[in-house]
Amino acid sequence: MTIASPPPTPAAAGRARSDDPLAVEAAGIAFANPIILAAGTAGYGRELSGIVALDKLGGIVTKAVSVAPRVGAPAPRVADFPGGMINAIGLANPGLESVRNDQLPWLLDHLADAPTRVIVNVVGSAVEDFATVIAGLEDVAARRSAARAAPDAYELNVSCPNVRAGGMEFGADPATLRAVVAGARAVTGRPLFVKLSPALSDIAAAARVAIDAGANGLTLVNTVPGLVVDVEQRRPALGFGSGGVSGSAILPVGVLATWKVSRALPGVPIIGVGGVASATDALQYILAGATVVAVGTAAMRDPRLPERIIADLARWCAAHRVTVRQLTGALEWPA
Ligand SMILES: Cc1cc2nc3c(=O)[nH]c(=O)nc-3n(C[C@H](O)[C@H](O)[C@H](O)COP(=O)(O)O)c2cc1C
């Protein structure tokens, strides 16, 4: 394994204006605005081009990338219920080779002149897989001569509830979590965000383990384990059985996790995610301590929603004469 190179400067692509009320900075990365697309809900960006103005977003987190292609879980993979969605995709993805040779170069080229940040979501079935994926992507970045050769950051998914191996147990066991993060840290100088499950008994303790092992920030939260039953069939609604609950039902869960971690680890950047469907929802995460907010399920249903959230956030900040930076962690909660 190679030793980490020094942290890079943000991509040479268009930079966020720091005097803009929406501009934020997390782990040394400048975001033009705090609204990004959540992992797994926007593919690798290509599917959305033509529908969504990716260059207007703060960033995009890609679908998970594993060492080898994964076929994922049996159908049906998603089911709706009042208040949200349950999914067991099983981290289906085309694998490292395809992502580094095709998907990621397309996304980076597409955003070559845009300030939109690109964060690659990484997953593994073994501890060393995370470092293997990141090293593979770094290797290609080193050989690419394009204006934008590399992602801005990586997000380690140690919290997927719907796979048989390499899911939530990676984030739930401190020694494994430490090994995953340290392994990834050894192969890249770019910022690492660790994505945790809200089902952890002590999410702040897990966050501390991740930061101590070399992570730069946290993504809070992944989906909540759940079960939706098809009563006519007397079977689970999903082919896998149980799944991960997302959408508005989990908004308060993610906001509380964000608050707990931001209190326990002041100054550590947090990407808040879970149930965001409006600027008000995003503001809840920001006040609870998130610097950046990701939108998943709601954007799958309405791909133009994140652009409207950004516009609404700008209006809200103007009306209240504040910047997003002034709001981060500004929740008043008397003891
Ligand atoms: C269809 C689907 C696929 C997902 N795939 C991933 C993934 O590949 N990696 C990951 O870390 N999270 C994945 N997630 C979790 C989301 O990134 C997000 O944490 C979760 O859905 C909560 O946000 P939301 O309520 O806005 O959807 C997925 C969620 C959904 C609904």
List the helices and strands and how they pair.
Elements: E1 24-26, E2 29-31, E3 35-37, E4 59-61, E5 78-81, E6 84-87, H1 96-110, E7 117-122, H2 127-143, E8 153-157, H3 169-172, H4 174-185, E9 192-196, H5 203-212, E10 217-220, E11 224-226, E12 229-230, E13 235-236, E14 243-246, H6 251-264, E15 270-273, H7 279-288, E16 292-295, H8 297-301, H9 305-320, H10 324-327
Helix pairs in contact: 1-2, 2-4, 4-5, 5-6, 6-7, 7-9
Bound molecules: flavin mononucleotide (FMN).
The site of flavin mononucleotide has 27 residues, from strand 6 and helix 8.
Characteristics of this structure?
335 residues, alpha/beta, TIM Barrel, 8-stranded parallel β-barrel, 4-stranded antiparallel beta sheet, 10 helices, 32% helix, globular, disordered N terminus, binds flavin mononucleotide
Shape: globular
Query: What proportion of the residues form beta strands (DSSP E)?
Result: 15-25%
Topology-level CATH name:
TIM Barrel
Q: How many β strands by DSSP?
A: 16
What count of domains describes the coordinates?
1
> What is the level-2 CATH architecture name?
Alpha-Beta Barrel
Mean pLDDT: 92
